[in-house]
Amino acid sequence: MSGIIQVAVVEDVRETRDKLVRSISANEQLRVSSTASTLAEGMALLSARPADVLLVDLGLPDGSGIDLIRNAADRYDDMDIMVITVFGDERNVVQAIEAGASGYLLKDGETETIAQSILQLVGGGSPISPGIARYLLKRFQGPATGLPASDSDRATPDFSLTKREQEVLNLIAKGFRYDEIAGLLNLSAHTITSHIKNLYKKLAVHSRGEAVYEATRLGLLTR
Amino acid sequence: MTEHPGYRLSWLMTRLVAPLLVFAIAAVLLMYQSRGMFFPEQYSIDIVNGNEVAIPLPERLTEASPRHFFYTVSAAVSNAALYLPEVNDTLVVRLNHQTVIDERGGQGTANLWNFPRLMPLGDISPGDVIELEVTTEQPGFGYIGSVYLAPVSDVAPYYERWQFIHLDLLKYLSVALFSFGLFSLVVWALRPQERAFGAGALLMLIWVAHTLQLYVTDLPFSRAMVDWYAKVTLCWMVIAIILMIHRILSLRHPVFERLLLAYGGCSSVAMLLFALFQPEIFWTGASRYWDTTTLLMGFYPTWQVLKAVWFQQSVQAVWVAAAGMLITACGLHDWLLVNTDWIDHRWYLIHYSGFAVVFVFGGLLLMRFVEAVNQYEESNQVLDAKVEAARVTIENQYREMQSLEHRALLNSERERIMRDMHDGIGGHLVACISVAESQGGDHRVIDSLKRSLQDLRLMIDSFEPIEKDVLSILAMVRERTEQQIRLVGLSYRWQVTHSQYQTDFPPDVTLQIMRVLQEIINNIVKHSGGTTITVTNQDFSAPSPAIEITISDDGCGYSPDHAEPGKGLENIRHRLARIDGRFVLKGDERGTKATIILPLQPDWIID
Fold first, then answer.
1. Is the terminal CB of chain B with fewer CB neighbours within 10 Å at N or C?
2. What is the interface size between A and B, counted as CB pairs within 8 Å?
3. Predicted ipTM?
4. What's the pTM?
5. Nearest-CA distance from B196 to chain A in Å?
6. Partner-chain residue, chosen from A89, A130, A147, that has the shortest CB–CB distance to B467
7. What is the domain range of residue A105?
């Protein structure tokens, strides 16, 4: 990756935004190109490609960051989007991934960690937590895993995991880190993180397809 | 039905004709073979008539009665008896012109038609003259048949056997038919749409009526009236058979049936009038005409059933046809016996075809009845099963709906709380920490804030909508503590292994376990000074399912003296005690080893 990586931050709480901006600016490879504190401002940013990486908080005062993520992902295919979250909880992160995000950032992360996460994402790897790994296993495999799957979570044949992906997700769900899994499976850590990024993209595409399917079924869209 | 006729013929041959032929041959053989059981030829005597002209037996009277027959005894017999198996009218017996037995009573004739007789004579000696006087109202029909003379003890067994086969058996048959008739009548009364049962009841009850003379012998009616009764009931029996066959085969000939009934009614009345007022014509023309038409009518149902067999090829129809042919054959036999000289004995067979009626028609009706009951039961069972299945489905749907609603409610509540925490308290805590850190605030305040955020995260994790087993709990704790331990130069040696217990801890239990683990790790971070935290887990199956988690470090080692008095460890013990768990802490110079042992409650285990 050559040149400085431009980062845009959309976060309503000033202290947190400031902290993020500080953390990003502290790394010489990164630069904050623009910031926004509301959904409207965030949308306005999208009129031109705002940055290489877009950081979005979900709980914006005038709406959900999910809409911003979806719009951004639609318009700028090559832009990496990260959701900023307090808890890194499965529900919020997965929602963001389905909308088109490919990474998440904990709001209270250490300065170093924040910068590293952004660089890792740009470098082709995505972070994941055991909870998200479990969700992906459930989502991609359907009820066969024994985990309850609601109707919208049902797996489709063209939407399944490779054996390797499954192995990786299983180990993540058990608490192993990328580097440990790399050792266990004789892979490079980078290969594994890019596996995860691909899975996120698959999930986003599938979710979109499902949404279109649902909308068509409900008569909201015509093909 | 487009089968080749050849096939149908062979089917008929094997199903009907061949068995019937075998049966008929066997019956005839049996009849002739068994004659010796009833007719003791060794005691046979020749009777001469009043004019002392020998007439061969069996004889047939040529004019109206009474007629006398004589026999002169040739040897002495003590305790002798006359055995007359075939005599068909009223008898008077005289020994040396003294009346021994007079069956006429006050009537002139008694209705002992075709009953066998055993008549004790006492001791007889050579030269004694036995006189038999046959009295009959019917011209040309006085019939005495074979006559046997022997000691009572010698002929009595023959008489008893013949009595049984000729009368008693038919009485039992009548009782059976009567029971079947009543049963059919009740079925028909309860279910009028079962018209075959009505016709069957009619047939059987008429049959029983026809055999009434087996029970009641001394009737105050003339011989002609009794004969009329027998002939009329026989004719109505045939009519009933026709009605029943129509119903069994589902044939609809309402006009034909009405004509038949009208004919039966009118001709019965006409015959009654003849019997009452013109017995001459009754005995000669009318009776013969009547018997013949009855026989011819009997061919009709046989023909219908044979047709049904031919076209439907049902086994039931075959049996009905066999019965019909048997009845027809017996009728033909009896018609020949009464109306011609071709048959030289008095063994009427029509009554025996009652067996066919009992077994075939009775059996058929019973089968229909059983089938109907079975169908009813089956449909009841099917209905029950359907109702039960529907009930179970509805119950399951209801439960599923309830649990879905419950889950949806929990989820929406959880999401609401999460959103509130995220946008509210969580965001504020993060902001607080950011501000405090950027302004170099008191590290105890920052620590406290961070611990609040940490605890909030544990709470949120414990509510994650995934199944919580020991590995996922350990994984979540690692996720939450990774950054924390790295900052003080520690790292995890993750040595967790697959657990045989698939569990789903409830949120409160999950939270307790996570807090305990967090507390242990906090202690290590604060006090250990080591570089590695090793996490392992193990299953125990005895005495009851339990899991063990050990968290060890390579730090300075735990010593109770250094431990904060009370607080942290006490907290851990209290928390574990609440979920029946135990905590063991061991330490030496090579490090500290914290062990949690948690017995698994049955409802935490899945499957």
1. C
2. 113
3. 0.82
4. 0.53
5. 59
6. A147
7. 5-122
